[in-house]
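Quick one, probably user error.
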């Protein structure tokens, strides 16, 4: 599928992802660390919800940028939340350790969240504002300029 085709699908509302302006579907689950997780605890904060997996090459390229942006926007209360998609948890734990990711990653073994967000592929990121509304979606790897453009839509 070409980039033009993906854009067209998203524009006419038949696309693969939750629409911009819609409430973010609820995520309640368990992180890679075995901790309970509820996306609702991030209410009032800008959130980047990133669907990823360790066998995804663009995900590997994107992780250092996410870490940098999390630090850069710490004063805004930015939260990054990963959703492990289509890969085993042990491999993801090793990946998170290797890359020094400090944000939680929620497991999605039955693809509940992937389905709810209608994720096309990995990586895919949803930029959610403090009121829990999706304001922007990035299909594919987020790069520096992409991030800042999307982030401007959710920054407090």
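Nope, works fine. Designed sequence:
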């Amino acid at each position: 599928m070409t980039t033009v085709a993906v854009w067209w699908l998203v524009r006419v509302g038949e696309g693969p992802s939750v629409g911009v302006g819609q409430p973010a579907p609820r995520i309640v689950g368990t992180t890679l660390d075995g901790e309970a997780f509820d996306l609702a605890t991030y209410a009032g904060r800008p959130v980047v919800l990133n669907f990823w997996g360790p066998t995804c090459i663009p995900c590997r390229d994107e992780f250092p940028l996410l870490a940098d942006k999390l630090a850069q926007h710490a004063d805004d209360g930015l939260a990054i939340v990963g959703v492990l998609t289509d890969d085993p948890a042990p491999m993801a734990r090793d990946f998170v350790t290797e890359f020094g990711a400090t944000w939680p990653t929620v497991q999605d073994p039955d693809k509940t969240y992937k389905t709810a967000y209608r994720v096309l592929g990995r990586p895919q990121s949803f930029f959610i504002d403090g009121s829990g509304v999706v304001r922007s979606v990035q299909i594919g790897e987020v790069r520096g300029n992409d991030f800042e453009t999307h982030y401007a839509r959710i920054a407090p």
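Residues 1-16 have pLDDT under 50 and may be disordered.
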